[in-house]
Every structure is written in structure tokens, then in C-alpha cells.
Amino acid sequence: MIKSSVIISFYKNLKYLQMVLAGFERQNNKDFEIIIADDGSPFDVVAEIEKMSALHSFPILHVWHPDKGFRKNKILNKAIVASRSPYLIFIDGDCVPHSKFVSGHVNNAVENTTLTGRRVNLSQKLTEKLSPVKVRIGWLEHHFSRVVLDGLFGDSFDVEKGFYTENETILKYFNKKKRGIVGCNFSLHKKDILKINGFDERYEAASVGEDSDIQFRLELLGIEIRSLNHIAVQYHLDHKLQPRPQENLDLFAKVREEARAFTQFGIVK
């Protein structure tokens, strides 16, 4: 059995997806499958993904549904059902993983615990310098000083989150603070997300539904959230950020008020 399933949320941007997949070619832990959770990309993009899939060393499953607006949570639920391993890692299609990203999640997996990492936010300038070839040869790790300089004098930010270390003393210090789940970088046992019936599909815009809501309902079951700061590192490719709509915040307020771990609007209807 495959040890972990990496679920990549995706919509249209093939250039970024190619760099993300190039990052997974560098993983020191090779025992994983990739599931592309595609929220309705057009058929020409779907055809390109099918071609790309044959070029990689790991198995890729493309899960798709028609474009009817933002339905990320719905396609993530389909990807969960399609996954073939007992452990799930979630990442976005605009986040390039560090070479020890998968092992960082898998090696720290424990029962009744959800793991969450963080990301470096690359500037437009650095994003434009990248390519699948550069990612595959480890440019981001070998030239991380360039990222740091761009954080100091350019537009990259959160660059301190890109420092990877295996020093237990340092890790203990930086991970003693409780941190919330971020939807682009978290992992958990498949059985745990099934206990809460997956993602709530009523969220039809970005933010809240793919992280804050999930965390709240997991914690209702006693699932602990543990930080993998400086362990599960990723690099976010620049793009215009979507706003946090009030509708999502209102829905989350209702979820908190009802305090039910198992959503009726998830995998099982």
C-alpha cells in the first residue's frame, strides 16, 4: 500500500502545476501518490494534465468536475474518496514543496493529530525566475539566500518560514506555539477526516472552509493540531490573492454555534 496520498487543489494554472510536480520529483520520500483535485479546468488543460502525468516517476490521479464556480471543497472530498493510502497530505497547486516536505509530514504522523506547516511567499520577481527545470534541480533550496535577500529588499515575505532544520532544540522552540491549520499545508490520517465527513461543501469561495472550519470540527473530536514550522516547508508562487468573503465568515460563525464535528454537507450526503 502507498504510504501517503498528496492531494493538490488545482484550477487552470498549468505553469504553476508543472513547478509543483517538479518539486515532488525531488522528494527524499518516494512512497506517495499524487491526486490532482481539479475544480473544473477546461478540457484543453485536462488533456495537458493527462500528457504530463505520464512524464513523472510517481502515480498521478486526476480528479475533475465541471466548472460551476468555486467548489474547491467538493473536489477535495472527491479526492479523499479516490485516495489509496491511509494518510493524506494537502497542498495547493501554487505551492512548491521542499525536498523533505513529504517526509516531514509522514515521519511526524501520530494518531489523533493533524500536522500543519507554513510557507514562504515568493515575490512576482522570484516567481517569474522559476521554471520546472530550476525547481527540479533544487534552485530554491540551493539559492535560498536569494529568497532571503528578496525578503529584506524586495517583495517576498515570510521568508523565515523557509528555513529547514532537523535540530530538535530549534524545532522545539519554534513549534511550542499553537498554530492553526493552513489549507495549503496540512496532513492527517484519512480516518480522521472521514470522521467529520470531509470538507463542508457549502463554502463556495476561498478561505475559511478549507482550513479554519476543518480545524474547528477536528478539535471537537479531540484531534490535536501540531505545528511543523521549519519541517514541512513550501514556497508559494505569487498571484493575486482572493478576498475573504463575508458569506464564508457568516457560515463559519453558524458552524461554531452549532458545534457539530460531522458536517451534513460533506462526503456522505
How does the SSE layout of this entry go?
Layout: E1 4-10, H1 14-25, E2 32-38, H2 43-53, E3 60-64, H3 72-82, E4 87-92, E5 95-97, H4 101-107, E6 113-116, E7 118-121, H5 124-129, H6 132-136, H7 139-142, H8 144-153, H9 168-174, E8 185-189, H10 190-195, H11 212-220, E9 224-227, E10 233-236, H12 246-258
Parallel strand pairs: 1-2, 1-4, 2-3, 6-9, 7-10
Antiparallel strand pairs: 4-8, 5-10, 6-8
Number of helices: 12
Strand proportion, as a percent range, falls in 15-25%
H/E topology pattern: EHEHEHEEHEEHHHHHEHHEEH
Major beta sheet summary: 7 strands, mixed
Label the structural class.
Answer: alpha/beta
Distance between the termini: 28 Å
Q: CATH superfamily assignment?
A: Spore Coat Polysaccharide Biosynthesis Protein SpsA, Chain A
> Could you say what the CATH architecture is?
Alpha-Beta Complex
Low-confidence stretches: none
Shape: globular
CATH top-level class: Alpha Beta
The number of domains is 1
- CA-atom Rg in angstroms: 18 Å
Strand order of the largest sheet: 3-2-1-4-8-6-9
Annotated CATH topology: Spore Coat Polysaccharide Biosynthesis Protein SpsA, Chain A
What's the total count of β strands?
10
Helical content (DSSP H or I, runs of 4+): 25-40%
- Overall mean pLDDT score? 95
Please provide a written account of the structure.
- By secondary structure, the protein is α/β, with parallel strands linked by helices.
- It has one domain: Spore Coat Polysaccharide Biosynthesis Protein SpsA, Chain A (Alpha-Beta Complex).
- It has helices at 14-25, 43-53, 72-82, 101-107, 124-129, 132-136, 139-142, 144-153, 168-174, 190-195, 212-220, 246-258, and strands at residues 4-10, 32-38, 60-64, 87-92, 95-97, 113-116, 118-121, 185-189, 224-227, 233-236.
- The strands form 2 sheets. Strands 3-2-1-4-8-6-9 form a 7-stranded mixed β-sheet, sandwiched between helices. A 3-stranded mixed β-sheet has the order 5-10-7.
- The model has no long low-confidence stretch (mean pLDDT 95).
